[in-house]
Specification:
Number of helices: 5
Shape: rod-shaped
Pfam family, one: DUF3450
Oligomer: single chain
Largest sheet: 5 strands, antiparallel
Number of strands: 5
Protein name: DUF3450 domain-containing protein
Radius of gyration: 59 Å
Keywords: Coiled coil, Signal
Organism: Brumicola blandensis
Strand order of the largest sheet: 1-2-3-4-5
Helix content: 55-70%
InterPro entries: UCP028069
Order of helices and strands: HHHHEEEEEH
Strand content: 5-15%
Structural class: alpha+beta
Distance between the termini: 179 Å
């Protein structure tokens, strides 16, 4: 081969190697750009994933709060339902009582009239302790029963109060002024009653004494042997002397 030919071959080879180097550099740069894009895309994707994860955690926390709130509301609703049911039972009970008021009134009014009649009969048959006062009390009860401005409850209270007062006469020791009929003559006296055990009368001049006989429904004059005892009894009831043992004409109980 001539030198000229060798030089030409060398030049061609150098050109070919230079072209190959240029091509390889371009491809590497393209690969680097593509890889950079991939990294950028991957970073964006990761950021999106991170954002989605954070959102999912927030939603999960919110969901749990909603569940807790729902459970709390359910318990509270059950509590309110029980309260409403209890209130409804109370309302139903009150309604039943209201519905029975008329029936109660219809039953209690005849009962009160019967109680007043029985009280009046008892007073007429009893020892005449404070007789006028007791008879006036019965008449006031009858007046109240015909007074429309007095409630049924107040009427019933007054009837019971009258019975209580009658009961107290059986335990009281008292003295009060009045008058008796002695053989057609009115005599001013001081009465003394030992509960319902004995009812005595002492004339104002303290010269005569009587005892009530419930069998004959009249006053029987006592002998002089009882006069000092009756005087002492009246004075004790009036609080003038201390209580002491005295001799009184008390009728023995019969079978």
């Amino acid at each position: 081969m001539s030198k000229r030919t060798q030089i030409a071959s060398c030049v061609l080879g150098a050109l070919a190697l230079g072209n190959a180097t240029v091509v390889s550099a371009d491809q590497l740069q393209d690969l680097q750009k593509a890889e950079a894009k991939i990294h950028t895309a991957a970073a964006k994707s990761q950021e999106k994933i991170n954002n989605l994860f954070e959102q999912s955690q927030e939603l999960l926390a919110e969901y749990r709060n909603v569940i807790d709130t729902t459970e709390g509301l359910k318990v509270y609703n059950d509590y309110l339902a029980n309260l409403v049911a209890d209130q409804q039972r109370g309302i139903d009970s009150l309604q039943r009582q209201i519905d029975s008021i008329d029936e109660t009134r219809q039953n209690i009014v005849p009962l009160m009239f019967a109680m007043i009649d029985s009280l009046e009969e008892f007073i007429n048959l009893d020892i005449p302790i404070n007789l006028e006062e007791r008879q006036e009390r019965v008449q006031r009860l009858r007046d109240v029963m015909s007074n429309s401005s007095v409630t049924v409850a107040e009427r019933f209270r007054l009837v019971l109060e009258a019975y209580q007062t009658e009961n107290e006469y059986g335990t009281k020791i008292e003295s009060y002024s009045g008058q008796i009929d002695d053989n057609g003559q009115s005599v001013q006296v001081d009465f003394f009653n030992l509960g319902r055990t004995a009812l005595l009368a002492l004339s104002k001049d303290q010269k005569a004494a009587w005892v009530w006989d419930n069998d004959s429904r009249s006053y029987q004059q006592l002998g002089d042997e009882y006069l000092s005892s009756v005087i002492q009894a009246v004075r004790m009831a009036q609080g003038l002397v201390p209580q002491d043992l005295i001799k009184l004409p008390i009728k023995a109980a019969a079978e």
